[in-house]
Amino acid sequence: YHYNTGNDIDLNWYHLDRSRNNLVALGAGQIFFDSYTQVWGPGSGVSINASSKWDAVNLEFGQHIDMGEFTNVRLHGGLEYARVKTTSTLNGSLGINNAGVFNPVTGAFGAAIATGTAQQVASTSTYNGVGPRVGSDLGYGWDNGLNVYAKGAMSMLVGTSKFTRVSTVGINGVGSTSGSTTTVNPELEAKLGATYTYAMAQGDLSLDIGWMWVNYFGVLHDASVAFAGSTGAYKVSDFGLQGPYVGLKWVGNVA
Asked: Residues 6 or more apart from 32 whose CB is under 8 A from it?
């Protein structure tokens, strides 16, 4: 919503839902170390399913400033809500030379698991956070409607990270661990792109294309180390994404 002289209120929502599957068959002399500190030896068949979901809702209050005939800048501040969820599931049938579970604390292997034993390891990490957000958009445009831009923003989120891990070996061996922690996490994002605006009778139609980079620092927690025999420590990792985007926007007069 644009009002006064260069002021605006902007509400936007990003959503990502992606999954992938990989199948690993180990041959002679091959050893596979998964992210849960389990060791799979030759003859093992390992199927890995991983999914990521991301939602971010930003409420921005902006001010547009013309700095010359072709250059303009938009300064904005507001509030961001973010939710990140990652899920990993590993299924396998152990080979004849499986080395057993590796303990990263002691540096030693446990008892080997019987040949052909089925195993599943499932891990989920979920983060929800909210906090202030600031940024600036720098643009350079020509009279023909073409504009190139560089945009940057950052947020400081306060949120809760929850994590769960369940491991099943055969039909009887089941173990699980879970927990949650409250954290303060910075987020950075940047965009490089171009827009072409076509003036219509009742407003402006804009085509937008560019490259986007986003990173949330320390929002994901993994219980794998705690499950492997430590005293409750866990791994902390970032969540990031980047890639091309394209968009279409129409701005019309309602007065």
From this structure: 24, 26, 39, 40, 44, 46
